[in-house]
């Protein structure tokens, strides 16, 4: 049986505004029938704090700490909580809502797409699995997260290794297209991460930080010798091919497409109106 061919874009380490603009542009182009379903891998230069579409910046984020740490800052077009993008592989998946493999339910589509990430962890020799919230308290925490930190908040079909979350993802649906993107952590600086958010008091901050160690883990806390970015890149590329039963072909942006993304990055994702609107 011939496998469906999807585009694969390796855009390397880009600015926060370019990263979000390219994800948005890919969604738009796919909705217009200009490109096939696409998987993209990327990194961040500089390391960046991204916040979810609905997050309230003034209430939740310590912008002075973000600036002091020399981090980039951007609001995502997807929901979810704050994510520190540093030593990680970031992925995005762009596919039509009407694609025969995509369930209509947001959570079920999330599960199908995340099969690719699941298989990537398995290619690295990690026994990853999906965990779902079981108690009413956990389900309520999804609706009303108590923490502003992505990896500290539960979600449906979380990817877990040894009981701890190993990838954080968010999804949006616009123009009939699903955009799901997320972080696969190689390393995590917890002190830096927890310095970027506001808390009612230091006691709450320390409690959340302590609890966090039981909830989330980076790949290289679990692997010896450590996994390099290149090794993760290859494992998750193969993982998406296996998990979604597709074949990936390299895709490069034309000069015209690149110019469009750069314009969108500057006009939207670098603007205070977008980043600080809530």
Automatic annotation (TrEMBL):
PROSITE patterns: BPL_LPL_CATALYTIC (PS51733). Monomer. The record marks 165 as: Lowers pKa of active site Cys. This is Octanoyltransferase LipM. Belongs to the octanoyltransferase LipM family. The active site is at residue 150. Its EC number is 2.3.1.181. In the reaction, the free carboxyl group of octanoic acid is attached via an amide linkage to the epsilon-amino group of a specific lysine residue of lipoyl domains of lipoate-dependent enzymes. The reaction proceeds via an octanoyl-thioester enzyme intermediate. GO terms for molecular function: lipoate-protein ligase activity. CDD domains: LplA (cd16443). PANTHER family: OCTANOYL-[GCVH]:PROTEIN N-OCTANOYLTRANSFERASE, OCTANOYLTRANSFERASE LIPM-RELATED. It comes from Aeribacillus alveayuensis. Pfam families: LplA-B_cat. Keywords: Acyltransferase, Ligase, Transferase.
């Amino acid at each position: 049986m011939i496998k469906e061919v999807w585009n694969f874009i390796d855009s390397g380490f880009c600015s926060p505004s370019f990263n979000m603009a390219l994800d948005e542009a890919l969604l738009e182009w796919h909705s217009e029938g200009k490109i096939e379903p696409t998987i993209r891998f990327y990194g961040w230069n500089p390391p960046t704090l991204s916040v979810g579409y609905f997050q309230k910046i003034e209430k939740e984020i310590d912008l002075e700490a973000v600036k002091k740490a020399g981090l980039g800052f951007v609001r995502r077009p997807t929901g979810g909580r704050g994510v520190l993008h540093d030593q990680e592989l970031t992925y995005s998946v762009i596919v039509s809502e009407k694609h025969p493999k995509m369930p209509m339910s947001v959570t079920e589509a999330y599960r199908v797409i995340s099969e690719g990430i699941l298989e990537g962890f398995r290619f690295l020799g990690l026994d990853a699995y999906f965990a779902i919230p079981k108690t009413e308290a956990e389900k309520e925490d999804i609706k009303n997260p108590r923490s502003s930190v992505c990896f500290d908040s539960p979600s449906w079909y979380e990817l877990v290794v040894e009981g701890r979350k190993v990838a954080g993802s968010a999804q949006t649906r616009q123009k009939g297209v699903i955009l799901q993107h997320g972080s696969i952590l190689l390393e995590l600086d917890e002190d830096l991460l927890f310095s970027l958010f506001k808390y009612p008091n230091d006691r709450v901050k320390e409690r959340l930080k302590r609890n966090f160690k039981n909830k989330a883990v980076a790949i290289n806390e679990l692997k010896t010798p450590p996994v390099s970015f290149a090794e993760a890149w290859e494992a998750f590329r193969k993982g998406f091919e296996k998990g979604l039963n597709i074949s990936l072909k390299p895709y490069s942006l034309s000069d015209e497409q690149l110019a469009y993304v750069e314009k969108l990055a500057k006009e939207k994702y670098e603007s205070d109106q977008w980043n600080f609107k809530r």
